[in-house]
Each structure stands twice: as C-alpha cells, then as structure tokens.
Design a protein that fits this description.
single chain, alpha+beta, five-stranded antiparallel β-sheet
C-alpha cells in the first residue's frame, strides 16, 4: 500500500481552506493508497515515512519563502517530493518569467526592483496602467493596479515591500483581462487535465494590502489550440526538463491578441475540482503512477 502525503498548511486569517483536499484524500484511499493531509511546517511530521509527498495547498508559503524552500529541500531528501525541490526553488520566485522570456516564450513584460535597488517615479510607467506585486506572492497578496497619476501610492507600496524583504515586479496592466479574463490550464501526469477562466482580480483603487478575491467569476473553459501551444512551450522551457507531476499555466491575451504567460504555477496550484469533478479520478491515478 503506497503511503502518500498531501502537503497543506495551517488554517489562518489569510489562508482559505483547500476544497480539493478532502476530495483527493478520499479518491486516493478509494484507489488503495494510505493517504493523509500533512502540514508542511509540522515539526512532528516524519517525511521519511511517506513514499510520496505531493505539495497541494501550502498557501502560506509566499510570505515564508526561505523557510518553505528549506523545508522542500529537506523533505526532498527524505521522500519523493512532487514537484521536485529544484523546481519549487525556481518557480517560487516569479523572476522565472525572465527565464521564459529569454527562451522565447511570450510572457507579460516584467521589470524587477529588488531591495536596495534605486526606484522612483522614473522607474514607473508614465503612459499606461501598471501592476506592482511581489515576486514571491499568491492570491494577489501585495498586488495593486495603478494609473500614472498614482505613482506616489505605488512608491509607498515599493517602500513597504522592500522593507519586508520582497523584490517587486512591475508589469503593464493587461487590458484584455477586463474583457477576456485569465485562463488557467491545468496539467497532471504530463497531460492536460482541464482549464478554467476567471475574471479580473485587481480593481482600480483597491489598496495593495487589501485582501482580494483570487478567482473571481471562475468557470470551466475549453482551451484553444493557441493556448495549448503556448502552455506546452512554457512547460518545455522549465530548466533541466524535470519530471513534473502537476503544472498550471495562466494565460492572458497580449497586445497582439495572442495568448501569453501571466504565470507558470508549479508549486501549489488550486485545482478547481469542484468545476471538474470528472478530473478527480485522473488526479488520483496520476499521483499513484508518479
């Protein structure tokens, strides 16, 4: 009997419950596995006792990134970790978008400003809306949308982020999101699992430190051939061609109307199994085959 940990986090005011967790635990147990949910920072967890640890909903990791990456490296030495620790380290910092862009993958243009680097109004866009957010973030935490008239507020956000040790990323606000939303293509076991579409997350004037709805207006989506092609290129560009158990590729339409990568989520993607109940068995099958 295979012993599988589905890795999650402790509940808290900034952490939503994972609706997929009980469903996947039941599916794995029905398939004959010994499956249990384990909190990633539980000091009593015996990771060596598991045949496989699948990172599922460690949704507090982005504000504890160094601690989480140290855990992933340690757990990866004690059991098989999915996704692998090297992948987690690369993907936990959104500067990976620069790697994808360098590989020729269409991505949202991004500039990075690390703590200690100079910043001021000259570093902010003067002729279009833009977004400021941390390179280590989830659920739109510490993300905000600005117009050129709001530079003073954006600079205060940069100051706050740098004081807390975050590197900032500055991107043009992708206007197509207001019309066509974001599409998230889910892959499991190397195959397309399903896709969803959601509406815009960042409303004008919402403070960067306000809690946002991470997946507004979410619904099932049938990806286009163009979306599938960009997603496949993005996954192929992951360094060292790792054996990925799961992946989510978030796409938006660029200025040319073609899909481009907003985010490549290889750490702890929400699976939206409530919209795709037929995918539950496929996920369990892929976990047990990994």
């Amino acid at each position: 009997m295979r012993h599988v940990a589905l890795v999650t986090c402790r509940p808290g005011p900034e952490v939503v419950a994972d609706p997929d967790l009980p469903v996947l635990l039941a599916a794995l147990r029905d398939a004959g596995a010994r499956a249990e949910a384990v909190v990633w920072d539980d000091p009593d967890a015996d990771w060596a006792a598991f045949d496989l640890a699948v990172i599922r909903s460690t949704w507090d990791y982005s504000w504890r990134a160094a601690e989480f990456l140290a855990w992933a490296a340690r757990a990866g030495r004690l059991t098989r970790l999915a996704n692998p620790a090297d992948v987690i380290r690369w993907n936990a910092d959104k500067r990976y978008l620069g790697d994808l862009a360098a590989a020729g993958i269409p991505t949202v243009p991004t500039r990075y400003v690390a703590p200690g680097e100079p910043y001021g109004p000259a570093e902010l866009p003067a002729d279009h809306e833009y977004v400021v957010k941390p390179t280590s973030g989830a659920g739109a935490r510490f993300a905000a949308r600005y117009t050129p008239d709001e530079h003073a507020t954006a600079l205060r956000q940069l100051e706050r982020m740098h004081a807390e040790g975050f590197t900032a990323m500055i991107q043009p606000y992708v206007r197509s999101i207001d019309a066509t939303g974001e599409r998230a293509l889910q892959f499991f076991g190397g195959r397309l699992l399903h896709a969803i579409r959601k509406g815009p997350v960042l409303a004008p004037g919402t403070p960067y430190d306000a809690r946002k709805t991470a997946h507004p207006g979410v619904r099932a989506w049938q990806p286009t051939d163009a979306e599938l092609a960009v997603a496949d290129r993005a996954l192929t560009a992951v360094p060292d061609a790792p054996d990925l158990l799961y992946a989510r590729v978030d796409l938006v339409d660029g200025e040319d109307g073609q899909p481009c990568v907003m985010e490549l989520e290889l750490v702890e993607p929400h699976l939206f199994l409530d919209l795709h109940p037929a995918s539950v068995g496929r996920v369990a099958e892929a976990v047990l085959a990994y």
